[in-house]
Write a structure and sequence with these properties.
alpha+beta; 2 domains; six-stranded antiparallel β-sheet
Length: 418
């Protein structure tokens, strides 16, 4: 078979199998987004297509440029953006692929509902902006970690625990949902579905009632970076608002100013925050009144300054910062009296402030799904986890600034309690 000569901006991606399963029983597929024509597997001998399943066995080869890796499943990519790389176990890959399909983890009628799968979210631009993240927002199933390598040494890593450590966490996640979110096939674990897609996790009534009892508002302040060529609400601008919770009207109302948009009021219904798409799903509808414009209600988060402001509030609620009496070690002020920017800055420097660190007395005052995952994986636990950074892994190809030799994605094992 003729080998395709692979040159930058392609970058090798190797798949490390630590699951204990044979490579013939592990499948990989590239779903959605843009999947360019020049993508190859097995050191250039297999031309890859989107929406197609390849076993690790099919993608195995030696890699002459990296002899220490020996024979290992590998691909080389330079043009795959806004999609996902899915992995699954079994005799076949995922079924029903194409036409924008990707598996729905909570739909019992989905053709892959009973299959154990997981995914990573990469962007192969073919330049220094190549990046990826791990996600456990919708569900948790197969533990995955990722690392970059240069000259035979690891550069950076997105960690995940394995074995009994991850098995214990999965068991605990199942108990959080009162076993309503667990999916099994033939008595074998498949996945546990997250609180943005499954019932059974705590609601936010207690936290919203507590915040309504406070005399001082929650401060939402920061900088929206803006969109390329943005104007009005999409332009770069600072914002400074106060959020007041009202248990009688069942609304949280944010009032203040944006540097470009001027005076603004944003209101969110408690019912919207309590819905699966609310605080957990971080995509509630909200009503905006800005300047002389007529009020309007969104269907969910919009990528503009108002959506960013709502995102700050939702991130804070998931992390437990509003109303927190825990002292911010940076300025010696209670976190609940700090601004949203000060919350995130403090959490970056002191991760122990997150979740129970901010609300040690009541686990209903934060996202305990995300809190449980934090010690065992660098995956997103909810959509705005990145407010405190550290969730993206960059892997520039040869010829780019900060270039690495290859990206390694490792599938790990799970050991459940006896």
């Amino acid at each position: 078979m003729e080998t395709k000569t692979l040159t930058p901006p392609s970058i090798p991606v190797v798949f490390e199998n630590k699951t204990g399963m044979p490579d013939s029983k592990i499948w990989v597929q590239f779903l959605n987004g843009i999947f360019g024509a020049g993508q190859y597997g097995a050191n250039g001998t297999v031309k890859l297509s989107g929406d197609t399943a390849y076993s690790f066995e099919q993608l195995k080869s030696k890699m002459p440029a990296f002899p220490a890796l020996k024979t290992i499943p590998n691909v080389s990519l330079n043009d795959f953006t806004n999609g996902r790389i899915y992995f699954n176990y079994g005799d076949k890959g995922l079924q029903g692929l194409g036409n924008g399909y990707q598996p729905s983890p909570n739909n019992v009628n989905d053709p892959n509902y009973k299959k154990q799968y997981a995914f990573v979210e990469p962007n192969f631009f073919g330049n220094q902006n190549n990046n990826m993240d791990l996600s456990a927002i919708d569900f948790f199933s197969i533990p995955i970690e990722a690392s970059t390598w240069k000259h035979g040494k690891m550069v950076k890593k997105l960690n995940c625990k394995s074995g009994a450590a991850i098995g214990d966490t999965i068991e605990y996640l199942i108990t959080l949902s009162h076993s309503k979110a667990a999916v099994y096939a033939h008595n074998s674990f498949v996945r546990v579905i997250g609180p943005g897609l499954a019932e059974g996790y705590h609601n936010w009534d207690a936290y919203l009632k507590y915040l309504s009892s406070l005399a001082k508002p929650t401060k939402i302040k920061g900088l929206f970076s803006g969109l390329p060529g943005g104007t009005g609400p999409t332009a770069q601008q600072t914002y400074n608002l106060s959020a007041t919770f009202n248990a009688n009207t069942k609304l949280v109302i944010l009032t203040g100013t944006c540097a470009v948009e001027g005076a603004v009021t944003i209101s969110i219904k408690f019912d919207a925050l309590n819905a699966l798409t609310g605080i957990y799903g971080a995509n509630p509808p909200y009503t905006v009144t800005a300047g002389s414009k007529q009020p309007y209600t969104t269907a969910g988060i919009v990528n503009d300054v108002f959506g960013w402001i709502v995102g700050d509030l939702l991130a804070g609620l998931n992390m437990g910062f509003p109303g927190s009496t825990t002292i911010n070690p940076i300025n010696n002020i209670a976190l609940g009296q700090c601004t949203s920017s000060e919350w995130f800055q403090a959490a970056i420097q002191h991760p122990s402030l997150l979740f129970a660190g901010a609300q040690p007395e009541n686990s209903d005052y934060y996202n305990d799904w995300a809190a449980s995952l934090l010690p065992v994986t660098n995956a997103y636990g909810f959509p705005f986890s990145d407010r405190v950074g550290g969730l993206l892994l960059y892997f520039p190809p040869k010829g780019s600034a900060g270039a690495v030799d290859y990206l390694k994605i490792t599938l790990l094992d799970v050991e459940f309690p006896a």
